[in-house]
């Protein structure tokens, strides 16, 4: 492509973005492998129209037997699939009963439903079925060559390929390579994890699928796992570590937080790269590029945020004061985004003080050091989930009033808030529209809609009205 | 000498008598697809139609295109006497003139030019090389001679004598090579066409040229988004505004961007100026799902007003006033139907494609007709229908005024047809056809793979139907007479004959044997 063509493509893309017609993906939990929670482009949401958000999707998944704060997770979203039935924006939902749904989100119709029918026992710490949010193939990039993922040495042909595959792990531990047009397995499922393992953070990057296991479920060790789909054998690697999820750096380094530290591993074979001692906790770190290298922020068990430099393992660059003081903590994961002025932000969901809040920091230079400077604290928000960011707005779900055992109190309900990303000022709230407590599984934002689940296994989306 | 003069005078006089012609795609500049002068074929005898003749032409199909809708002039003074002449255009830059009485070739013109530097991607059905615009035949001049205006694949407009195919004027540039122009329309000395799909890198716009302009200045209006791929090009209203759908695109009035709508442009002071436009209020949805506004409208008079109908792949019909399409905000039609089909919101093999049709019966009832592809929408239940519709059908609606407002009232839906194409109405009979074409562009296992060889191989056969225009009841069908499919072609009806051309470059003439 010559320069003129490139400019023309960029110009077209920008114009289309301005009109909200670029379909973007939310391909994995946390929005990207770095777990930033940031939808970098959403042409439909603006600071001006967020006040007019409406309930744009509500669907109850009755097929999920269990109910609770972790039985239904928000979807990954494919902004545009040119399927054999037309152009679709699809949300992929995994349920605790080994079910996988594809939902046409514009029409709130089931596009396909797949039940893996794997025998498994269920208990609170070890729920049966698919436990990780599915992961999509590399996001569509305007004018880019569509990547074709090889899998375990099996040559993809016109007869077994899928234009935009999704990946999911069923309760028998097998990795499914799913045709997103039909829900069918493109090839026989590949052995990946022990049956019954509790997985999280499923992520595809450069032909390698990563995940973590926890809780000792199914007899599986608590570990980081990788399966290299580029290899002939579909090589599986793992490294034992207690964590609740992984984040991947821009150089494909894997980061997980254990009780005592943050550890980094090489891509594919997961060979240890480094340890950041004293930065331990129980959440998923966030990674972002800053000053030509990756920085990591991890929430400590003491309620402090630890800023880590990927080039300087072993030490913490900066530590914030404790964000909570009443024994509660920073939950789930963090978020990060870059505003139009080039300021890098880090957001933390804090439970407690008194009920919860979002605390926003700027990544800044001070006296020659990189620091986190607190910029704003949101209004009191009960049990806030890790926020997501789109169009300069921070969307945060209050899951409701939760007891310390992670059970919602009677009569409580979820509320979705939109906050000004620069000030934390409330721009919108769903008020009393949501009728159940929020699930503690996360929030998704894509193409003008913000998705979350409630404990009664209902998927909700609020967003910009689209006339059909 | 006196006898010869008398014969010539008589002959010229015959040529000037009222005749049932089909001089342009969709019958007239308003694109009503209504043959008003048909008297031979009737509801009662149409069941007796047979193939009167067929002719294998040497046109070579390009991608999925082959032959375009035939044009007919009843009385043409040729060297062999007065003949009814049919003009058939072929994608490979061919124009054929056929003697309608015998089905024999009178003359052929092939446009030769250096192979253009640019063309569409081989295998892409959207951008075939060559002649893509159905020609148009001008009115008789003082001597009764008529000219066929033809846009060759190199973008040159040719003016040919219909009697012998000879140039009557020097060709001039009226488009880009392989630019994929759509049917020519001639109104009051101005020729219009439209372009789409950016074929060979060319712009998508409305084009116009005044035939009496010695400089042959080419005037264009570009809506800055979408592609103007109404099958019959632009329709022209009584004020000279050419209305054309703008296909899949964006709408941004502040920046003069008019995709996914219907724009009207008129020649004024040597320029083609935008005069009005209509954009469906759900245009974002249409764009998101690739449900293009791509149907050439039909324009007609109704109770002192001039109205038009159009539609899209979404499968709704819009009723608009040419004086103010879409009202003050350009997004409020006089009436919008419910969805007639395409519950799946598919961009392929479903929805309304091509053009509309309209006619007025002897009782003064104004009818609006649309074809559609794919299954009928489960919520659309017309008062009269003929069994399940899973592949396509023709729907007829009455234009009515109720409580001071205009509306389109469903009257009947035809039998199932394999992707119904724009119908033609003549003497109380609706002629329609299922194109038999494989229109699949995306597949479960490979996504978007719109590839001509795949589609040609998977295509079937077209079938012609005749329906009672009041009820939609089937009166005739051609069975397996047609051997291949059609793609972006159309019907023509004149003087007791119905014409359809298929992909294998065979032109069929149906009519009443011995009439």
Describe this structure in words.
The complex is a heterodimer of chains A (468) and B (515). Chain A is mainly beta and 468 residues long. Chain A has one helix at 3-18; strands spanning 38-39, 54-60, 76-83, 86-95, 99-104, 109-115, 135-136, 166-169, 174-178, 190-191, 198-205, 208-214, 223-228, 235-240, 246-248, 254-257, 261-265, 272-277, 286-290, 293-299, 305-309, 318-319, 335-338, 344-351, 356-366, 369-377, 388-390, 393-398, 415-420, 426-429, 444-446, 449-454, 458-463. The longest helix of chain A has 16 residues, at 3-18. Chain A starts with a helix and ends in a 5-residue tail after the last strand. Residues 1-18, 139-147 and 152-160 of chain A have low confidence and may be disordered. With 515 residues, chain B is mostly beta strands. Chain B has a five-stranded mixed beta sheet, with no helix packed on it. Chain B has a four-stranded antiparallel beta sheet with strand order 2-37-36-35, with no helix packed on it. Chain B has a four-stranded antiparallel beta sheet with strand order 3-4-5-6. Chain B is globular and about 60 Å long. Residues 1-17 of chain B have low confidence and may be disordered. The chains are: A mainly beta (468), B mainly beta (515). The A-B interface holds A 15-16, 19-21, 23, 81-87, 89, 106-107, 158-164, 179, 181-182, 466-468 and B 250, 252, 281-282, 284-285, 287-290, 344-348, 350, 440, 442-448.
Map the helices and strands.
The complex is a heterodimer of chains A (468) and B (515).
Chain A: H1 3-18, E1 38-39, E2 54-60, E3 76-83, E4 86-95, E5 99-104, E6 109-115, E7 135-136, E8 166-169, E9 174-178, E10 190-191, E11 198-205, E12 208-214, E13 223-228, E14 235-240, E15 246-248, E16 254-257, E17 261-265, E18 272-277, E19 286-290, E20 293-299, E21 305-309, E22 318-319, E23 335-338, E24 344-351, E25 356-366, E26 369-377, E27 388-390, E28 393-398, E29 415-420, E30 426-429, E31 444-446, E32 449-454, E33 458-463
Parallel strand pairs in A: 1-27
Antiparallel strand pairs in A: 2-33, 3-4, 4-5, 5-6, 7-8, 8-9, 9-10, 11-12, 12-13, 13-14, 15-16, 16-17, 17-18, 19-20, 20-21, 21-22, 23-24, 24-25, 25-26, 27-28, 28-29, 29-30, 31-32, 32-33
Chain B: H1 2-16, E1 34-35, E2 50-56, E3 71-78, E4 81-90, E5 94-99, E6 104-110, E7 136-137, E8 147-151, E9 156-161, E10 167-173, E11 185-187, E12 190-194, E13 206-210, E14 218-221, E15 235-236, E16 242-245, E17 251-252, E18 257-258, E19 262-268, E20 271-278, H2 283-288, E21 298-302, E22 305-311, E23 317-321, E24 335-336, E25 357-360, E26 366-373, E27 392-402, E28 405-413, E29 424-426, E30 429-434, E31 442-443, E32 447-448, H3 452-458, E33 463-468, E34 474-477, E35 492-494, E36 497-501, E37 506-511
Parallel strand pairs in B: 1-29
Antiparallel strand pairs in B: 2-37, 3-4, 4-5, 5-6, 7-8, 8-9, 9-10, 11-12, 12-13, 13-14, 15-16, 16-19, 17-18, 19-20, 21-22, 22-23, 23-24, 25-26, 26-27, 27-28, 29-30, 30-33, 31-32, 33-34, 35-36, 36-37
